[in-house]
């Protein structure tokens, strides 16, 4: 996590995508629209729950803590402006973000979500998109 945070901090800057940037997008253009993740985004698969230790050490570098618990999960690390952020993500969300970072279109992301068994892939994709814009995970073209 330390490496991911430092790497995110050192990554190239990018202008953040805003919801207003999508206002002019025509309905027929959504399917082929590709979104760029920030250059700082790191999708970090973890086998241990290290976040509580990270928080404790961030608050007090001399803090002691319990050993981390085994937990397979994914952590997102990114820097929207000057401060790095991180949070856990469900495997589906992390997979869609990785697909976006490799150039997948909105339609391809919806297909990925549908293939996971999600009953409303377009709604889920739109929810992801709304959250990612609010959190500053996506870059303006």
What is the topology?
Blueprint: H1 2-10, E1 36-37, E2 42-49, H2 51-59, E3 69-78, E4 85-89, H3 91-101, H4 106-115, H5 121-135, E5 138-139
Antiparallel strand pairs: 1-5, 2-3, 3-4
Helix pairs in contact: 3-4, 4-5
Protein model, in words:
The chain has one domain (2-139): Outer Surface Protein A, domain 3. The protein is 38% helix and 19% strand. It is built from five helices and five strands, in the order H-E-E-H-E-E-H-H-H-E. The chain has helices spanning 2-10, 51-59, 91-101, 106-115, 121-135, and strands spanning 36-37, 42-49, 69-78, 85-89, 138-139. The strands form two sheets. A three-stranded antiparallel sheet has the order 2-3-4, with helices on both faces. A hairpin with a 6-residue loop joins strand 3 (69-78) and strand 4 (85-89). Helix 3 packs antiparallel against helix 4 (106-115) and helix 4 packs across helix 5 (121-135). The two termini are 28 Å apart.
Structure in a nutshell:
By secondary structure, the chain is of the alpha+beta class. 38% of the residues lie in helices and 19% in strands. The protein is built from five helices and five strands, in the order αββαββαααβ.
Tags for this model:
141 residues; alpha+beta; Outer Surface Protein A, domain 3; three-stranded antiparallel sheet; two-stranded antiparallel sheet; 5 strands
């Amino acid at each position: 996590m330390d490496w991911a945070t430092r790497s995110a901090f050192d990554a190239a800057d990018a202008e953040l995508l805003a919801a207003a940037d999508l206002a002019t997008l025509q309905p027929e253009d959504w399917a082929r629209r590709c979104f760029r993740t920030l250059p700082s985004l790191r999708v970090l698969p973890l086998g241990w729950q290290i976040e509580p230790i990270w928080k404790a050490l961030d608050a007090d570098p001399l803090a002691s803590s319990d050993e981390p618990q085994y937990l397979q999960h994914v952590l997102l690390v990114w820097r929207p402006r000057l401060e790095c952020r991180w949070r856990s993500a469900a495997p589906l969300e992390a997979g869609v973000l990785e697909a976006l970072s490799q150039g997948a279109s909105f339609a391809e992301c919806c297909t990925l979500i549908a293939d996971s068994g999600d009953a409303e892939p377009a709604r889920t994709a739109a929810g992801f998109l709304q959250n990612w814009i609010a959190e500053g995970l996506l870059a303006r073209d």
